[in-house]
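Hey,

Quick one before I head out. I ran the complex with MU-OXO-diiron overnight. Inputs first:
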Amino acid sequence: MLNDKIAKLINEQVNKELYSAYLYLDFANYYADEGLDGFAHWYEIQAQEERDHAMMMRRYLIDNGIRVMFGEIAKPDKSYTDTTSPLQAGYEHEQYVTSLINTIYAEAFAIKDFKTMQFLDWFIKEQGEEEKNAEDMLRKMELFGHDAKGLYALNQELGARVYMPSATGPAM
Ligand code: FEO
């Protein structure tokens, strides 16, 4: 059985991960509308990964005897002024998610919940990768995205992303 506060934080994080999926699908909708199908594809896959994260946390709660409770998933609240702005918003969002995961980790550390710390280790690493990916995409867009050929190449590159289920995540 998990500590109540830890269970509540992870339950809330399930919602945040589902919101992340919803937000990234919103990015994909925007890019599809702009004719940038590679960018849209990249964010469709990112949305799948976020759903995987939510499912991993849901499973962890269930396996620890917690009744998972769903709340509303908020409407994506970003506005896009140009084709770079979702990338900027995505980078900032991942930094925010890292802060949420860190908060749960700090709480687990404070009460010596080593099991939850071990569970969260995967997410700590994942957040490092996601922040790096988001920052790299933003930098590439800033460097090459203002030129038609550069934007075309970037769209091709992002369109080649392949979905990899988060099977290497924590044991469920
Ligand atoms: Fe599930 Fe992008 O963090």
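The two ends are 15 Å apart (CA to CA).

Talk tomorrow,
K.
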